[in-house]
Amino acid sequence: MITTLNLPDFDQITPESVETQIVQSIEALKGFLSGLTNTIDETRSSKAALDLVFELEALELKLERPYGLMSHLNGVIGSSDYRELRARMQPMVSELTTQLGQHEGLYKTFNQIKQDQPFFEGLSKDRKRSIDKSLKSFALLGFELDQAKRTEFGQIQTRLSELSSQFSEQVLDATQSYARALNASEIKGVPTARLDLLRAAATEHKLQGEFAASLSVPVYVTLMTYSEDRALREELYHAYGSRASSGFVPAPHLDNGPIMAEILKLRHDKAQLLGFDHFADLSLELKMATDTKQVEDFLEDLAVRARPFAEQDLAEARAFAKTLGIEELEPWDLAFVSDQLKSERFSFDSEAVRSYFTFEKVLSGLFTIAERLFDIQIKATSAPVWHPDVRFFKVFEGDQPIGAFYLDPFSRSGKRGGAWMNGFDSRFARAGELNLPVAFLVCNFAPPSAGADACLTHGEVTTLFHEFGHGLHHLLTKVDAPGVSGINGVEWDAVELPSQLMENWAWDAEGIRLISAHETTKESLPADLLEAMLSARHFQSGLQALRQVEFALFDLRLHKQGPVSEAQIDDLMAKVRAQVSVLKIPPSNRFAHSFSHVFAGGYAAGYYSYKWAELLAFDAFERFEEEGVFSSVVGSDLKNAILSRGGSGSAAEHFMAFRGREPRLDALLRHSGWAVGAAEISHAP
């Protein structure tokens, strides 16, 4: 079999060349559709129909590559050229997607294969799953609607695509529009090792003075955690929390409020066109969860379990704040006070710990862990990249390549914040040719100083493990049908399982030995710091859990409503906070306006997936704890049952194959540091 690895030639890529590829691919797909009649040729065999499906998949991949590349470069470069290109291309691709989902001849091609039971049953499980998912997608893309409603559905899809881009762009623009110089008193308390980050912010924003504040996550978190200047922390808190809202002082015109309201109305209209009561029901149609009640019960149960611990966390923080001269703890004090409290209680010096997690050592240790668990080899090699910081790696089983990935680790001007994994290319086998998967892994760690290695906080270490887990899920697939290979076709509330599972090795003593080396002495994390770090693992876990539940309940309830105004969105957030949060959040914090996961990502009515998958991940890791954290046998079972299977079966089926039973709540409660409750709850995944 011929093996193909499609890699972008970043040395030659331009917005113009990407646009040409996208347009040509769109035209090729339209040409393919025009060749399909709405009536089936009675002489056409099911094998011929399957060949047409293979042809369609190849054409779709030819479009997905340049389109995905355009979206990727827009996120990591952020130039106006790629932003404008995306604005032009998104409506065209959205329109084409709707045409594909509503094309009668294409539907009949898939349905012919499904209805020919002897032929269908003779197909591989992967291919049958892909056919079934494709038929399901026809219904969810409006195939069963009459022509007028099909047209309306297509218009909604196109407009939603435009609005999601506009939402994310305004969040990025708002984030980058705030920066100001800092004086000596405002940087008091910031560790010397973090000052280079503030210097870089001053240079990036061309400000007078040596140091600057910005809303870039590394800079923002540094100042909120370490600056002793309470007024500065309050200013930053209000600025960050009001981004992309009318209350954002530097740029009130970058208000996502009207965009949010329109997105919610269109999502509701779309759901009703398809026969659902609301968008939350439509969202759950392709997820593990059976209905919104199951999800809401799950979240509310977690809130009840977490609340006593959150209240205790807050009471301890308030009491400790008074010893620091802060009589009334406010949200902008929490990170600062918590770091001080954590340091005192556990003898935990976050900067001392950080000096042991040099980026190069963490990366090599992460690769060693993956190689031991999954019997793979990860090799750095050269390839054109989009920025000098970017690394390129190939993944092998034995001497056979199975995929490749790019890693873009550090923050920089114009790069979208956060961390993510994008599948650039999918595994696809047909007619003696095997196309290998390729992934982009992106993080935003503070860049290294000149001539030095970057040091990561332990939180950043777990972020790297998390995104690498997504990468493994995409790259270790053995599924040949692209629609269900890698992360494709995986239920959205289970797609975080591999990523959250991988985080556990960043907390394991042996794992930490493999990923730690002091930036100067090169020694592994010493026993006293390791003990302090592990002891502090559950520090404020109640507060952290309630924060996630707050976001998830807001998202779910928002999408159970009909069309709402911007004011009603803010009102719902306030009501959820009143129910869930133990710390009063000021009205100036309009988090929803920058909630990109929900308004510009794939998590609409699905943000609960993080907690849902966390339950699955901790339960899965419990098997490693029982049989050996570095057991190659358990690692092989995980690889064969989950990582390699992609969306070729249900997530519940894959979990059962690995665990031998349905998921339980025990491990989540134990790993959260909470008292263990019932072994199983009816609304668990």
A few lines on this structure:
With 685 residues, the chain is an alpha+beta fold. The protein contains 27 helices and ten strands.
Assess the beta-strand content as a share of residues. Answer: 5-15%
CATH topology of the largest domain, which one?
A: Neurolysin, domain 3
Query: How is the main sheet built?
Result: 5 strands, mixed
| The CATH top-level class label of the largest domain | Mainly Alpha
Q: Can you tell me the overall shape?
A: globular
Please give the count of helices: 27
Q: Order of strands side by side in the largest beta sheet?
A: 4-5-6-10-7
Q: How many domains is the backbone divided into?
A: 4
> How would you classify the helix and strand content by structural class?
alpha+beta
Whole-number radius of gyration?
25 Å
Mean pLDDT: 94
CATH architecture of the largest domain: Orthogonal Bundle
